[in-house]
Write a structure and sequence with these properties.
The complex is a heterodimer of chains A (242) and B (464). Helix content of chain A is 31%, strand content 31%. Chain A is built from seven helices and twelve strands. Chain B has two domains: 262 residues, 3-Layer(aba) Sandwich (UDP-N-acetylmuramoyl-L-alanine:D-glutamate ligase); 135 residues, Protein-Tyrosine Phosphatase, Chain A (Alpha-Beta Complex). In chain B, strand 2, helix 5 and strand 3 form a beta-alpha-beta unit. Chain B is globular. The two termini of chain B are 34 Å apart. Classes of the chains: A alpha/beta (242), B alpha/beta (464).
Chain lengths: 242, 464
Amino acid sequence: MKLTICWLYGDTMNIYGDRGNVMALAQRARWRDIEADITTLGSGEKLDPDAVDIFFWGGGQDREQIPVSQDIQGEKGTVLRQTLEDGAPMLSVCGGYQLLGKHYHPYGEDQLPGIGFFDAWSEAGPERFIGNVVVESERFGSLVGFENHSGLTFLGPTAEPLGRVRVGRGNNGKDGTEGCIRLNTLGCYLHGALLPKNPAVSDFLILAALKRRYGVEELQPLADDLEMIAHQEAVRRAEVTR
Amino acid sequence: MTFDIRLGLAIAAGKLSALSIRRLGRGGGTALPGIVSNQLDADILDKLAARIPGGSIVVAGTNGKTTTSRILAEILERAGLGVIHNRSGSNLVRGITAAFTEQVSISGQPSGQIAVIETDEAALPEVVRRTRPRLIVLLNLFRDQLDRYGELDTIARSWQAMLNELDPDQTVLINADDPALAAISEDTPAKRLTFGFQQCEHTLDHLPHAADAAICRRCGASLTYRELYLSHLGDYHCEQCGYRRPDLDYGATDVQLNGLDSGSLDLSSGDATLHLDASLPGLYNLYNVAGAAGAALTVGMPDWVVQAGIGEFKAAFGRIERVEYHNRNLVLVLIKNPTGFNEVLRTLAMSDMTDPVMIIINDLDADGRDVSWLWDVDAEHLADVEAPLFTAGIRSGDMAVRLKYAGIASERITPLGDLDGAIDQFVEAVPEGHTAFILPTYTAMLRLRELLHQRGVVQMFWEQ
């Protein structure tokens, strides 16, 4: 078996160690003797949905987000939305998460349209949320990460949050939600990188991809001792620092 | 010179607070005296800098500023000059003010003839405005932990604005191998000099992940490298608009690394070539050597003084330090950002070492509170090294996971957790008589020194 992991705009949207997410997906596949290929898809490149098993879309500096939001308009965005609606798994963080919503309104700039996959929208906020985060998620248990964003995301009536913030500020600092989940696609503000310290999320994405392409029903378990040490350490650190 | 009462009071207050902090045993007293002095006289730094007969040299860059400014101070001192220098590495305006306050008399008479000022990236424009240096040395601009400094572009823009405000009697010496520094210094009214590597066999195949994409600042196309040496430093050109690395006023050739101990290079300027031996490991330190030597030559130091100063220089606090402990040699190497960490790992991987390595990661303010940056580091360098790997510190677990996902077998990785308990466990794992490497982040380095000090090992840094 083989999985192809596609890092959307990996050449520009790659800050805050987000490549750790791509590494986690690839390594956890390889440790189960599943071949893993990593590709990137940049501006001006056409998306072939059949060639991808898992998507990752990270954050970038503001000036990098504007050309990306232009590139994702039109056919490319439509194909991506349909692929996700068909059940393709994706993890999106920060800038990528914002562009999966209806729109993002940066400070002092024109509104940037998103692809409208999540019933959510984002706008620049007055302060920057920076610090360790613990989220309680029904599906994954506790999730740990580090938030660093001034954009605020608001969920519409049909959107399901990824979880509730136990420590930290989350989507908008007001309603206690963090992230969004729909079908097999997750969006959130959790850097860290997220997946290495939250292996349950990695395995959710890998299993969704294997199910979709090969009809696989369950994953071979892995020893996650080091991951759990890091996870617990991050929970304690969040409790002490915020 | 008339006695400036306000200045005199500010200097006296600064000196007293430095003294009392040290009496209380509260660390080096490197910043508070500057805050006190600045409160009493807001222009204190401007006034003191203007009184230094030989003027000031300011050194800035993401990596290497402490080492470079220390090498430079060593050379100048060797030439018989009294050097005013913020030696402790306290490099914000208040720390620089404190260093100046300590090194002048109450009447404001400086005790030295020339100043060497190591400066934080964000503080550089203000420091330059207030000290009006004769020479500004710019080493590099790398991605640092982003939660601390904001975006790299912001720093580059503020430096460019500063460079464009300089006067023709000032000089900037830039590392021309860094395309961003070459671009932002193009229009400066100051005299611009360059240093870099003319020829070096240690090259990279591709830009490391931690490097920012190398973009031509003239036309926006990707830069092409004839040779790439370290992060985004190298000999580059733009195939679209023809922009290329400026000619080197100080070009290093025959750049040699001798394992983990030392290196050497030949520095050419015009027809003259100067051979420099340094007891510092790693390419990144040879860039520091080239920058410090170029700066010293620019202010008129004789060749033999430059050679001797570099030859006998011992690494700055915490950058590389060797200590004897329980019949083991511990080599402490500070890591503070992805590029610095990469270069340390690259240097380790070039040697065939088999003795244990301990990496200590903290996440306090000075380390960067977001440990995401560990994922921008190419820990894969260690995949082929046989040494057992230990992790410690507040984020011991994060580092252990980073190593695991770099393809290192879990059995070779031991997370020890809290540093206080880890140090003795680690030392026991090192065979007697052997050498072991310890790679701490900044606050971990401070704690490590404290722990070793308690065990009777090293002097504290402000006693140097």
